[in-house]
């Protein structure tokens, strides 16, 4: 059995999600010098969403590893990539947290209101790109964003631009359009300036080559080289997350079990739709003990 730990991105957050990881919260608060919030009001800001997702992902993954549930690959979606980098051994918890803190604050400052993300289902990447190109206006920008599945594509930009893109997408036969709970235009050229800042910031941080192969957001490729991974962490904010390619590469490399770190089950659903023969465990739904039991049971069956 080859296991993939997956780490969700923004949109997965749930108020109160940090209540069972107080040790990590206190440790993070000492590092950044601020009280960390995870209530509904706080989650209107990308700052607290990103911090919460990072902390929860690292905490649960480390608990699983302590229980001898160890991954052969790590794949994080957007902010989840930083938790993946910590688990793969590329960045220390402290250095990754500082990067996440800077990233989140700058994203919040750059686009405090009027921008976000949406998803179009039922169209190909090429068709969504056409809808986005038709909808784009310099005053109300919108860009093609994350490729979550063959026919589930995110768009990013101004709310006006997103709504316009949705209108064209429906004309082209889109099955569904949805606004995401993401208050920033992530994974688009609107974040290019921040990606350059992050490149400079991460160049000053000590890095290690990955102990566990890391799936790159920007290219979908499997990486172990510390410099290529650091580049992916810095630049992914301005480029689409190619989640569909990331999971495809894992499966081609023998992965047959995907374990999704809390919160939520979105990534597991996407993998199951694309790769029906793989096994999924959603830690949020079954808990740590059942996750450990299932892995042990499946390993014995495979032997």
Automatic annotation (TrEMBL):
Pfam family, one: Acyl_transf_1
UniProt KW Transferase keyword: yes
Database matches in SMART domains: PKS_AT (SM00827)
GO molecular-function terms, A-Z: [acyl-carrier-protein] S-malonyltransferase activity
UniProt keyword annotation of Acyltransferase present: yes
Location of the Malonyl-CoA:ACP transacylase (MAT) domain: 6-298
Keywords linked to the UniProt accession: Acyltransferase, Transferase
Signal peptide range: none
Active site: 78, 187
Transmembrane segments: none
EC number: 2.3.1.39
Enzymatic reactions: holo-[ACP] + malonyl-CoA = malonyl-[ACP] + CoA
GO cellular component: cytosol
GO BP, one annotated term: fatty acid biosynthetic process
Family: Belongs to the fabD family.
Protein name: Malonyl CoA-acyl carrier protein transacylase
Annotated organism of origin: Neobacillus bataviensis
Biological classification of the source: Bacteria, Bacillati, Bacillota, Bacilli, Bacillales
């Amino acid at each position: 059995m080859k296991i993939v730990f997956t780490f969700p991105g923004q949109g997965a957050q749930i108020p109160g999600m940090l209540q069972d990881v107080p040790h990590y919260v206190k440790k993070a608060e000492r590092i950044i010098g601020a009280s960390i919030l995870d209530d509904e009001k706080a989650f209107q800001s990308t700052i607290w969403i990103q911090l919460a997702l990072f902390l929860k992902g690292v905490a649960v993954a480390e608990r699983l590893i302590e229980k001898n549930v160890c991954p052969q690959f790590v794949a994080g979606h957007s902010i989840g990539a930083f938790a993946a980098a910590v688990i793969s051994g590329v960045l220390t918890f402290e250095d990754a947290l500082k990067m996440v803190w800077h990233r989140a604050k700058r994203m919040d400052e750059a686009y405090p209101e009027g921008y976000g993300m949406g998803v179009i289902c039922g169209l190909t990447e090429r068709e969504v790109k056409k809808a986005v190109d038709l909808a784009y206006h310099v005053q109300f920008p919108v860009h093609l964003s994350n490729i979550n599945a063959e026919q589930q594509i995110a768009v990013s930009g101004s709310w006006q631009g997103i709504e316009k893109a949705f209108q064209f997408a429906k004309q082209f036969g889109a099955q569904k359009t949805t606004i995401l709970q993401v208050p920033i235009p992530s994974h688009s050229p609107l974040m290019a300036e921040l990606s350059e800042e992050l490149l400079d910031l991460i160049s000053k941080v000590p890095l290690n080559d990955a102990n566990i192969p890391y799936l790159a957001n920007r290219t979908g490729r499997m990486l172990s080289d510390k410099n290529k991974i650091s580049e992916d962490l810095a630049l992914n904010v301005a480029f689409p997350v190619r989640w569909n390619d990331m999971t495809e590469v894992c499966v081609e490399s023998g992965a047959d079990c995907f374990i999704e770190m809390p919160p939520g089950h979105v990534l597991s659903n996407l993998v199951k739709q694309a790769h029906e023969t793989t096994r999924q465990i959603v830690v949020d739904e079954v808990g740590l003990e059942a996750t450990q039991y299932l892995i042990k049971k499946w390993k014995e069956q495979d032997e």
